[in-house]
Amino acid sequence: MLGAGIVSEVFDARGQGLPAFDFALCTDRPGRVRTDVGLPLVVDHGLERLAGADLVIALPWAGFRTPPGPAVLDALGAAHARGALVAAHCVGAFALAAAGLLDGRRATTHWRFAGLLAERHPQVTVEPDALYVDQGTVVTGAGAAAGFDLCLHLLRREYGATTANAIARDLVLPSHRDGGQAQYLATPVPEDSRDERLTDVLAWARENLHEPLPVAELARRALMSRRSFARRFAASTGTTPHAWLLGLRLSRAEELLETTELPVEEIARAVGFGSAAVLRAQFVRRRGVPPRAYRRSFSRTS
Fold first, then answer.
1. Ramachandran quadrant class, 179 (left: phi over 0; alpha: psi -120 to 50; beta: rest)
2. How far apart are CA 61 and CA 166, in angstroms?
3. Most buried of 45, 94, 228, 263, CB within 10 angstroms?
4. What is the rounded CA–CA span in Å between residue 22 and residue 235?
5. How far is CA 260 from CA 210, 222, 301, in A?
6. Where residue 243 falls among pLDDT bands split at 50, 70, 90?
7. Are strands 132-134 and 85-89 parallel, antiparallel or unpaired?
């Protein structure tokens, strides 16, 4: 039920200049489908609905240890073969693996079942800590609420950061989470006020991306030693201060490329990269295209 709720919320029709998605749930046996919380869900569409879909997401299901029937596997394979983007949330990855769509690719699933996926499908390189893994025409996401991360990534990839951020704000979600599943396996209870100080420092950093922001300065503002700050930061975010800042700078650069006509050199300075050459190198590494090509694809000012 959670998986169905996630995709229906993200791809809801919102208006306000946002994409108008034609969203539908389908199954191999249309009608009343019993969910894991006991509530019935009426699914009107059969597998024929996949024939015209641009995006197909395989949702988690309770019986994932038994592969879906041939009709489902054939429909998934046919959708991928004709060029649809095929994705899976949580143990929905088992359906893609059974259809052979993950062979020779990297993939993720809920951390609890990553070992089972690797054991059942040794031709798949399973990454148990990733929130999502993008392999071009096939994308897999981790379990539970990480379905939001998967869907927002798909939006960011196809429509740009502005659209993904707008929908994330509507859902009261972070538009992008750094780190992996490991950070969510155990959440320690704060022992003192350090978490609040860390939150304040991160908010300050977001407002001052044009500054160098060395770790020593962030630690000083958090009233911690550099070592304590790095350790606390990793425990709270699942990543390093450097990686977090890099992701934040690139996300802000994406927004400015989409929504302004500022020169790339000026954007580079505004987000703390210093020069267009540095921004270009980091942007190509993350997006696979240079900033100007990204602007041509996603600009809202032209």
1. left
2. 29
3. 94
4. 40
5. 17, 33, 6
6. confident
7. unpaired
Q: What is the DSSP letter of 222?
A: T
- Token look-up 């802000």 returns 252
Q: What is the pLDDT of residues 24-79, one digit of tens each?
A: 999 999 999 989 888 899 999 999 999 999 999 999 999 999 999 999 999 999 99
Q: What is the pLDDT of residues 127-184, one digit of tens each?
A: 998 889 999 999 999 999 999 999 999 999 899 888 988 899 899 887 766 555 544 4
Phi and psi based region of residue 83 (left: phi greater than 0; alpha: psi -120 to 50; beta: remaining): left
Of 287, 260, 263, 258, whose CA–CA distance to 276 is shortest? 263
Q: Give the per-residue pLDDT at 59.
A: 96
Burial 230-264 (b: 16+ CB within 10 A, else e): bebbbebbbbebeebbbbbbbbbbbbbbbeeeeeb
CB atoms within 10 A of CB 293: 14
Instruction: Name the residue with tokens 């300065």.
Output: 217
Task: Decide if 213 contacts 221 (C-beta within 8 A).
Answer: no
Distance, in Å, from the CA atom of 58 to the CA atom of 66, rounded to the nearest integer, reads 15
DSSP per-residue codes, 27-44 = -SS-EEEE-TTS-EEEE-
Residues in CB range of 70: below 8 A, 6 or more apart: none
Q: What is the DSSP string of 247-268?
A: HHHHHHHHHHHHH----HHHHH
Under 8 Å between Cβ of 132 and 141: yes
Tokens of 176: 């992008």
* φ and ψ of 148, to 5 deg: -65, -40
pLDDT band at 286 (very low <50, low <70, confident <90, very high): confident
CB 253 within 8 A of CB 268: yes
The length of the chain in residues reads 302
